[in-house]
């Protein structure tokens, strides 16, 4: 069931393999990878230390014909948060890695020269990457495909990763991104330019072929006629525009408001965008949804650019947040980030923060190497993106992220930065309480994919309401501004997201995306049919809670994170939304803290510290971690300063 671990030491060049059966209780994928990281990377090891591990893994269903199994999972110690980093991307890499003979790759050490890892037919080889050093992702992948054939799958860093930009990402199969957390920086610190999986001639078998096929047919049947998926298949994630507008969910001018004008809304109308820019919908391997858009810019200053991606996030990041009403620019900026190898959510938060501070007189043009970073300045924004990727001038300061950069500029700039645990916060909190709770408590810092519910902004049929009530056991699942009941919903999706990580599934085919799609019962069925492993849905949940508790303990031991590091930034309590559906909303401190108390209680965590109790660790099979509760964090330095000066209170 568990497969084979490929171990690569870049310092010595030693390559070995071993069975993953010792990690059977961790299901596969994310669970196994995080257990390896916890056991092998000690708290005093820094993210760029050769002793840090970069772990790449498939899931228990990767490479099968179950829909949505095109994901790859990565785990490391994050240079952004100093805590645990988990990442996930689509494409074909996961299937190709299994077809090539491996379920897990554990990389340690640092090569003296630029290299890439080539994997095929149960073998692996460390090869010279001199020919592609300094290349952007597109150019590097072109060379790799010319060398090894177009059927390969690739994980590749761009120039930002080579320059060890702290939040550099990894690009998978040209257009899929392992973002947040700085995976590209860790690869760059190891002198590892790329990983190539050549598994075009392999296959993956399942334990019960006919039962597996019947289960797959059942899942396909749930998609038929589902209106939410019709929209997703037609427009990709751009279909989220109307629902976000309805609840006041657009960050405008770096969140100074959460409402946009009707003219700007028309600019980002999904039907208009797809009619003008979209060539076709595309999908990851084995997916029936096809949530990606293949775009081509037909006119204007960016005419001719063609790329896959530019999802709904691109509008929020490079459109409304920067006060730019031009989808062509959103495509251009997204392509630039992907090709240079940087997380666009992080870059957009940096740009928005700089623009706001620039207009408030807290950062000057001289400090920005002569750039005039006012809202709406497309040319300056693109130049700054390139400067950050190359660590050129002020770009080297901003390449450390907002939390660290704010310590270099005026101390007053810190208040305007939106981040948690040092990781830039893309997610809005004020109009979507549960979504914000999931992002703020996320163990990787500032991330909605480890527990944030998207159902708050949804419109439910009566059948869907019944399903939601049965699963969440609370009535506030589609009340975006309610505080009550949100901890239960977040906890539910914490389990769902980790189960997807263990199985190699995309969240888009789970009930994270739509309430009647795959849930714990389905996951249990698929695990039994694919691998012969019998776990009830409740037993599955216990294992997912074990993974979450392992993550919490890693963060405590490595970075000292406790309850105070799950809190929102001060400006979210102080600044009400100015207009639109969420007008007047600011976080209610008393309600938020009460909600947090309940969140910790239902997890079995101490309300004061936010840490698992000894009893909770024992109950989920982690009794060996209990001694770590009494050990102070041995981190080499906090990721950021929690205290933030408030304007007018100097």
TrEMBL record:
Region: Disordered, residue numbers: 631-650
GO function terms (MF aspect): 4 iron, 4 sulfur cluster binding; electron transfer activity; metal ion binding; oxidoreductase activity, acting on the aldehyde or oxo group of donors, iron-sulfur protein as acceptor
Pfam family, one: AFOR_C
Domain Aldehyde ferredoxin oxidoreductase N-terminal: 1-201
Record keywords, A-Z: 4Fe-4S, Iron, Iron-sulfur, Metal-binding, Oxidoreductase
Cofactors that this protein relies on: tungstopterin; [4Fe-4S] cluster
Family annotation (SUPFAM superfamilies): Aldehyde ferredoxin oxidoreductase, C-terminal domains, Aldehyde ferredoxin oxidoreductase, N-terminal domain
InterPro entries reported for this sequence: Ald_Fedxn_OxRdtase_dom2, Ald_Fedxn_OxRdtase_dom3, Ald_Fedxn_OxRdtase_N, Ald_Fedxn_OxRdtase_N_sf, OxRdtase_Ald_Fedxn_C, Tungsten_al_ferr_oxy-like_C, W-dependent_AOR
Iron is among the record's keywords: yes
Similarity comment text for this entry: Belongs to the AOR/FOR family.
Name of the molecule in the record: Aldehyde ferredoxin oxidoreductase N-terminal domain-containing protein
